[in-house]
Amino acid sequence: MKITSVRAVYPKYKNTIPSWRTHLWQVVVRIETDTGQTGWGFGGGGKASVEIINGHFSEILVGRQLNSTSDISEIWDYLYVESIPYGRKGIAIMALSGVDLSLYDALGKAEKKPVAKLLNPTNKQTVRCYATGPDTNWYAEMGFTAQKIPHRWTGKHSTETAVSVTEAARGALGSKAEVMLDVYMSWDTDVTVHMNTALKHVGIHWFEDVLTPDDLEELGRLRQKIHPVNMAGGEHEFTALGFAEISRNRSYDIWQPDITWCGGITAGLRIVEMAIADKTVVVPHRGGEPWGLHFIAASECEDFAELVMGTRFSEQDNLWIGSPEQENGHIQVTDAPGFGVKPNENLL
Protein backbone atom coordinates (compact mmCIF):
# COMPACT_ATOMS: atom_id res chain seq x y z
CA MET A 1 0.00 0.00 0.00
CA LYS A 2 1.03 3.60 -0.56
CA ILE A 3 0.95 6.56 1.83
CA THR A 4 -1.43 9.21 0.51
CA SER A 5 -1.72 11.69 3.38
CA VAL A 6 0.16 12.73 6.53
CA ARG A 7 -1.27 15.16 9.05
CA ALA A 8 -0.40 16.16 12.63
CA VAL A 9 -2.47 18.20 15.09
CA TYR A 10 -1.94 19.53 18.59
CA PRO A 11 -4.86 18.46 20.82
CA LYS A 12 -6.91 20.81 22.99
CA TYR A 13 -5.54 19.61 26.31
CA LYS A 14 -7.41 20.39 29.51
CA ASN A 15 -4.71 19.22 31.82
CA THR A 16 -1.21 20.18 30.66
CA ILE A 17 1.41 21.13 33.22
CA PRO A 18 2.73 24.71 32.90
CA SER A 19 6.11 25.68 31.37
CA TRP A 20 7.18 23.87 28.19
CA ARG A 21 4.25 21.42 28.23
CA THR A 22 1.71 24.17 27.58
CA HIS A 23 2.82 24.46 23.94
CA LEU A 24 5.19 21.53 23.40
CA TRP A 25 3.30 18.51 24.72
CA GLN A 26 2.14 15.48 22.72
CA VAL A 27 0.88 15.62 19.13
CA VAL A 28 -1.44 13.26 17.26
CA VAL A 29 -0.30 12.02 13.85
CA ARG A 30 -2.63 10.57 11.22
CA ILE A 31 -1.55 8.85 8.01
CA GLU A 32 -3.82 7.51 5.29
CA THR A 33 -3.08 4.97 2.57
CA ASP A 34 -4.48 4.16 -0.85
CA THR A 35 -6.02 0.96 0.58
CA GLY A 36 -8.16 2.94 3.04
CA GLN A 37 -6.08 2.30 6.15
CA THR A 38 -5.70 5.04 8.74
CA GLY A 39 -2.75 4.95 11.12
CA TRP A 40 -2.63 6.95 14.34
CA GLY A 41 0.57 7.91 16.14
CA PHE A 42 1.59 9.95 19.17
CA GLY A 43 4.74 12.06 19.37
CA GLY A 44 6.24 14.89 21.35
CA GLY A 45 7.27 18.41 20.42
CA GLY A 46 3.91 20.20 20.36
CA LYS A 47 3.25 22.91 17.81
CA ALA A 48 6.84 22.87 16.54
CA SER A 49 6.55 19.15 15.84
CA VAL A 50 3.29 19.71 13.96
CA GLU A 51 5.09 22.10 11.60
CA ILE A 52 7.82 19.55 10.88
CA ILE A 53 5.37 16.72 10.20
CA ASN A 54 2.91 18.72 8.09
CA GLY A 55 5.72 20.33 6.14
CA HIS A 56 9.02 18.56 5.53
CA PHE A 57 8.05 15.04 6.63
CA SER A 58 4.77 15.04 4.72
CA GLU A 59 6.55 15.99 1.49
CA ILE A 60 8.86 13.00 1.91
CA LEU A 61 6.25 10.47 3.04
CA VAL A 62 3.41 10.89 0.54
CA GLY A 63 3.80 8.33 -2.22
CA ARG A 64 6.08 5.96 -0.31
CA GLN A 65 5.29 2.25 -0.01
CA LEU A 66 4.23 0.78 3.34
CA ASN A 67 4.03 -3.01 3.18
CA SER A 68 6.37 -4.31 5.89
CA THR A 69 8.26 -3.43 9.05
CA SER A 70 11.35 -3.17 6.83
CA ASP A 71 9.62 -0.37 4.92
CA ILE A 72 9.07 1.46 8.22
CA SER A 73 12.73 1.06 9.16
CA GLU A 74 13.81 2.43 5.77
CA ILE A 75 11.43 5.38 6.11
CA TRP A 76 12.80 6.09 9.58
CA ASP A 77 16.40 6.14 8.34
CA TYR A 78 15.50 8.42 5.44
CA LEU A 79 13.60 10.92 7.61
CA TYR A 80 16.42 10.93 10.14
CA VAL A 81 19.07 11.75 7.54
CA GLU A 82 16.91 14.37 5.82
CA SER A 83 16.26 16.14 9.14
CA ILE A 84 19.89 16.15 10.36
CA PRO A 85 20.41 19.91 9.66
CA TYR A 86 17.77 20.76 12.28
CA GLY A 87 17.39 17.43 14.06
CA ARG A 88 19.39 14.48 15.41
CA LYS A 89 17.77 14.99 18.82
CA GLY A 90 14.91 16.92 20.37
CA ILE A 91 11.78 18.03 18.55
CA ALA A 92 12.65 16.55 15.15
CA ILE A 93 13.03 13.08 16.68
CA MET A 94 9.85 13.56 18.71
CA ALA A 95 8.08 14.31 15.43
CA LEU A 96 9.69 11.26 13.83
CA SER A 97 8.44 9.17 16.77
CA GLY A 98 4.83 10.09 16.05
CA VAL A 99 5.23 9.29 12.36
CA ASP A 100 6.88 5.96 13.13
CA LEU A 101 4.05 4.91 15.43
CA SER A 102 1.39 5.92 12.90
CA LEU A 103 3.10 3.73 10.29
CA TYR A 104 3.09 0.75 12.64
CA ASP A 105 -0.58 1.33 13.44
CA ALA A 106 -1.53 1.41 9.75
CA LEU A 107 0.53 -1.69 8.96
CA GLY A 108 -1.00 -3.60 11.86
CA LYS A 109 -4.49 -2.72 10.64
CA ALA A 110 -3.63 -3.74 7.08
CA GLU A 111 -2.39 -7.12 8.28
CA LYS A 112 -5.19 -7.43 10.88
CA LYS A 113 -2.66 -7.87 13.68
CA PRO A 114 -1.86 -5.96 16.87
CA VAL A 115 1.50 -4.21 16.66
CA ALA A 116 2.91 -6.50 19.36
CA LYS A 117 2.20 -9.51 17.17
CA LEU A 118 3.64 -7.77 14.11
CA LEU A 119 6.89 -7.54 16.02
CA ASN A 120 6.78 -10.87 17.84
CA PRO A 121 4.27 -13.68 17.18
CA THR A 122 4.80 -14.94 20.76
CA ASN A 123 4.36 -11.57 22.47
CA LYS A 124 3.43 -11.22 26.15
CA GLN A 125 -0.33 -11.12 26.74
CA THR A 126 -0.21 -9.32 30.08
CA VAL A 127 2.23 -6.72 31.40
CA ARG A 128 2.77 -5.76 35.03
CA CYS A 129 2.53 -2.04 35.70
CA TYR A 130 3.43 0.54 38.33
CA ALA A 131 1.65 3.75 39.28
CA THR A 132 3.31 7.15 39.00
CA GLY A 133 1.91 9.89 41.19
CA PRO A 134 1.41 10.94 44.82
CA ASP A 135 -1.86 9.14 45.73
CA THR A 136 -0.43 6.04 47.42
CA ASN A 137 -3.58 4.84 49.15
CA TRP A 138 -5.61 4.98 45.94
CA TYR A 139 -2.98 2.95 44.09
CA ALA A 140 -2.97 0.35 46.87
CA GLU A 141 -6.78 0.09 46.66
CA MET A 142 -6.49 -0.62 42.92
CA GLY A 143 -4.03 -3.44 43.49
CA PHE A 144 -0.74 -1.82 42.46
CA THR A 145 2.36 -3.28 44.07
CA ALA A 146 4.79 -0.63 42.80
CA GLN A 147 4.81 3.17 42.84
CA LYS A 148 7.02 5.94 41.48
CA ILE A 149 6.74 9.14 43.48
CA PRO A 150 7.49 12.57 41.97
CA HIS A 151 9.91 14.50 44.20
CA ARG A 152 11.76 17.79 43.79
CA TRP A 153 14.64 19.06 45.89
CA THR A 154 13.71 22.50 47.21
CA GLY A 155 15.83 22.63 50.38
CA LYS A 156 16.65 20.72 53.55
CA HIS A 157 13.01 19.97 54.32
CA SER A 158 12.93 17.93 51.10
CA THR A 159 14.67 15.11 52.96
CA GLU A 160 11.85 14.90 55.48
CA THR A 161 9.28 14.95 52.69
CA ALA A 162 11.04 12.17 50.78
CA VAL A 163 11.31 10.01 53.90
CA SER A 164 7.63 10.57 54.71
CA VAL A 165 6.22 9.75 51.27
CA THR A 166 8.43 6.73 50.64
CA GLU A 167 7.73 5.28 54.09
CA ALA A 168 4.01 5.74 53.42
CA ALA A 169 4.34 3.92 50.10
CA ARG A 170 6.25 1.09 51.70
CA GLY A 171 3.61 0.77 54.41
CA ALA A 172 0.64 0.86 52.02
CA LEU A 173 2.03 -1.31 49.23
CA GLY A 174 3.92 -3.86 51.30
CA SER A 175 7.44 -4.97 52.06
CA LYS A 176 7.98 -6.54 48.62
CA ALA A 177 6.71 -3.56 46.61
CA GLU A 178 9.01 -1.50 44.41
CA VAL A 179 9.18 2.13 45.54
CA MET A 180 10.90 4.60 43.20
CA LEU A 181 11.62 8.35 43.23
CA ASP A 182 11.53 10.55 40.13
CA VAL A 183 13.37 13.76 40.98
CA TYR A 184 13.33 15.31 37.50
CA MET A 185 16.90 16.62 37.41
CA SER A 186 16.53 18.55 40.70
CA TRP A 187 19.34 16.83 42.63
CA ASP A 188 23.10 17.06 42.35
CA THR A 189 25.81 14.59 43.33
CA ASP A 190 25.90 15.57 47.01
CA VAL A 191 22.12 15.55 47.36
CA THR A 192 21.90 12.14 45.69
CA VAL A 193 24.44 10.61 48.07
CA HIS A 194 22.70 12.27 51.03
CA MET A 195 19.25 11.04 49.98
CA ASN A 196 20.55 7.56 49.33
CA THR A 197 21.67 7.40 52.96
CA ALA A 198 18.49 9.01 54.31
CA LEU A 199 16.24 6.53 52.47
CA LYS A 200 18.32 3.40 52.95
CA HIS A 201 15.86 1.94 55.49
CA VAL A 202 12.98 2.26 52.97
CA GLY A 203 14.64 0.17 50.26
CA ILE A 204 14.34 2.31 47.13
CA HIS A 205 14.28 0.42 43.83
CA TRP A 206 15.55 3.31 41.72
CA PHE A 207 16.29 7.03 41.66
CA GLU A 208 15.23 8.56 38.34
CA ASP A 209 16.72 11.56 36.50
CA VAL A 210 18.89 12.76 39.38
CA LEU A 211 21.09 14.90 37.08
CA THR A 212 20.58 16.37 33.62
CA PRO A 213 21.15 14.05 30.63
CA ASP A 214 24.25 16.07 29.75
CA ASP A 215 26.04 14.77 32.87
CA LEU A 216 26.55 11.22 31.64
CA GLU A 217 30.09 10.85 32.97
CA GLU A 218 29.13 12.07 36.44
CA LEU A 219 26.06 9.82 36.40
CA GLY A 220 28.34 6.88 35.73
CA ARG A 221 30.48 7.73 38.76
CA LEU A 222 27.46 8.48 40.93
CA ARG A 223 25.76 5.23 39.97
CA GLN A 224 28.51 3.30 41.73
CA LYS A 225 28.19 5.41 44.89
CA ILE A 226 24.48 4.64 45.42
CA HIS A 227 24.63 0.90 44.70
CA PRO A 228 22.56 -1.24 45.30
CA VAL A 229 19.89 1.39 44.55
CA ASN A 230 19.49 1.57 40.77
CA MET A 231 20.17 4.68 38.73
CA ALA A 232 17.42 5.14 36.11
CA GLY A 233 17.09 7.57 33.23
CA GLY A 234 16.99 8.11 29.50
CA GLU A 235 13.58 9.63 28.82
CA HIS A 236 15.34 12.74 27.50
CA GLU A 237 17.70 10.81 25.25
CA PHE A 238 17.11 10.21 21.55
CA THR A 239 17.82 7.32 19.17
CA ALA A 240 20.23 4.43 19.59
CA LEU A 241 23.09 6.85 18.92
CA GLY A 242 22.22 8.76 22.07
CA PHE A 243 21.92 5.58 24.11
CA ALA A 244 25.33 4.50 22.83
CA GLU A 245 26.77 7.41 24.83
CA ILE A 246 24.82 6.27 27.89
CA SER A 247 26.28 2.81 27.37
CA ARG A 248 29.82 4.12 26.96
CA ASN A 249 29.61 6.04 30.25
CA ARG A 250 27.72 3.30 32.13
CA SER A 251 25.40 6.09 33.25
CA TYR A 252 22.33 4.09 34.25
CA ASP A 253 21.39 0.68 35.58
CA ILE A 254 17.96 1.05 33.98
CA TRP A 255 17.36 2.67 30.58
CA GLN A 256 14.05 4.50 30.12
CA PRO A 257 13.50 5.46 26.48
CA ASP A 258 10.15 7.09 25.76
CA ILE A 259 8.73 5.49 22.61
CA THR A 260 6.85 8.69 21.71
CA TRP A 261 10.04 10.77 21.99
CA CYS A 262 13.16 8.67 21.32
CA GLY A 263 12.30 7.79 17.72
CA GLY A 264 9.31 5.46 18.00
CA ILE A 265 9.35 1.68 17.95
CA THR A 266 12.03 1.61 15.25
CA ALA A 267 14.49 3.43 17.51
CA GLY A 268 13.22 1.55 20.55
CA LEU A 269 14.04 -1.84 19.06
CA ARG A 270 17.57 -0.69 18.27
CA ILE A 271 17.98 0.60 21.81
CA VAL A 272 16.81 -2.70 23.28
CA GLU A 273 19.21 -4.62 21.06
CA MET A 274 22.03 -2.48 22.44
CA ALA A 275 20.81 -2.97 26.01
CA ILE A 276 20.80 -6.75 25.61
CA ALA A 277 24.43 -6.67 24.51
CA ASP A 278 25.11 -4.34 27.44
CA LYS A 279 23.25 -6.57 29.93
CA THR A 280 21.17 -3.54 30.90
CA VAL A 281 17.48 -3.46 31.86
CA VAL A 282 15.03 -1.39 29.76
CA VAL A 283 11.88 0.00 31.40
CA PRO A 284 10.29 2.45 28.92
CA HIS A 285 9.12 5.84 30.17
CA ARG A 286 5.27 5.90 30.17
CA GLY A 287 5.32 2.29 29.01
CA GLY A 288 1.70 1.74 30.02
CA GLU A 289 0.43 3.88 27.14
CA PRO A 290 -0.68 1.82 24.10
CA TRP A 291 2.54 2.33 22.09
CA GLY A 292 4.83 1.50 25.00
CA LEU A 293 2.66 -1.42 26.02
CA HIS A 294 2.94 -3.12 22.62
CA PHE A 295 6.67 -2.39 22.62
CA ILE A 296 7.15 -4.01 26.04
CA ALA A 297 4.95 -6.97 25.11
CA ALA A 298 6.94 -7.73 21.97
CA SER A 299 10.50 -7.05 23.09
CA GLU A 300 13.06 -7.90 25.75
CA CYS A 301 12.04 -4.94 27.89
CA GLU A 302 11.41 -5.54 31.57
CA ASP A 303 7.84 -6.64 32.26
CA PHE A 304 7.13 -3.35 34.05
CA ALA A 305 5.01 -0.58 32.50
CA GLU A 306 4.54 2.94 33.86
CA LEU A 307 1.02 4.32 34.25
CA VAL A 308 0.91 8.03 35.08
CA MET A 309 -2.14 7.96 37.33
CA GLY A 310 -2.30 11.39 38.93
CA THR A 311 -4.69 11.48 41.89
CA ARG A 312 -8.08 9.97 42.61
CA PHE A 313 -10.00 13.11 41.66
CA SER A 314 -7.70 14.66 39.04
CA GLU A 315 -9.23 15.57 35.68
CA GLN A 316 -8.17 13.33 32.78
CA ASP A 317 -8.09 14.27 29.11
CA ASN A 318 -9.09 10.77 27.90
CA LEU A 319 -7.60 11.55 24.52
CA TRP A 320 -7.35 7.92 23.36
CA ILE A 321 -10.47 5.78 23.04
CA GLY A 322 -9.84 2.09 23.68
CA SER A 323 -6.82 2.45 25.97
CA PRO A 324 -6.65 -0.68 28.15
CA GLU A 325 -7.35 -0.36 31.86
CA GLN A 326 -5.13 -1.84 34.53
CA GLU A 327 -6.50 -4.50 36.86
CA ASN A 328 -4.67 -5.40 40.06
CA GLY A 329 -1.47 -3.88 38.76
CA HIS A 330 -1.51 -5.59 35.36
CA ILE A 331 -2.62 -4.57 31.85
CA GLN A 332 -3.97 -6.90 29.19
CA VAL A 333 -2.40 -6.29 25.78
CA THR A 334 -5.14 -5.75 23.20
CA ASP A 335 -5.54 -8.15 20.30
CA ALA A 336 -7.19 -5.44 18.17
CA PRO A 337 -5.33 -4.50 14.96
CA GLY A 338 -2.65 -1.83 15.21
CA PHE A 339 -2.38 -0.26 18.65
CA GLY A 340 -6.09 -0.80 19.23
CA VAL A 341 -6.91 2.84 19.96
CA LYS A 342 -8.21 5.93 18.19
CA PRO A 343 -8.26 9.56 19.34
CA ASN A 344 -11.23 11.39 20.75
CA GLU A 345 -11.63 13.72 17.78
CA ASN A 346 -13.51 16.27 19.92
CA LEU A 347 -10.10 17.13 21.38
CA LEU A 348 -8.38 17.54 18.01
TrEMBL record:
GO terms for biological process: carbohydrate catabolic process. Keywords: Magnesium, Metal-binding. Its cofactor is Mg(2+). InterPro entries: Enolase-like_C_sf (IPR036849), Enolase-like_N (IPR029017), Enolase_C-like (IPR029065), Mandelate_racemase_C (IPR013342), Mandelate_racemase_N_dom (IPR013341), RHMD-like (IPR046945). Residues 134-229 form the Mandelate racemase/muconate lactonizing enzyme C-terminal domain. One of its GO terms (molecular function) is magnesium ion binding. PANTHER family: ENOLASE SUPERFAMILY, MANDELATE RACEMASE (PTHR13794), MITOCHONDRIAL ENOLASE SUPERFAMILY MEMBER 1 (PTHR13794:SF58). This is Mandelate racemase/muconate lactonizing enzyme C-terminal domain-containing protein. It comes from marine metagenome.
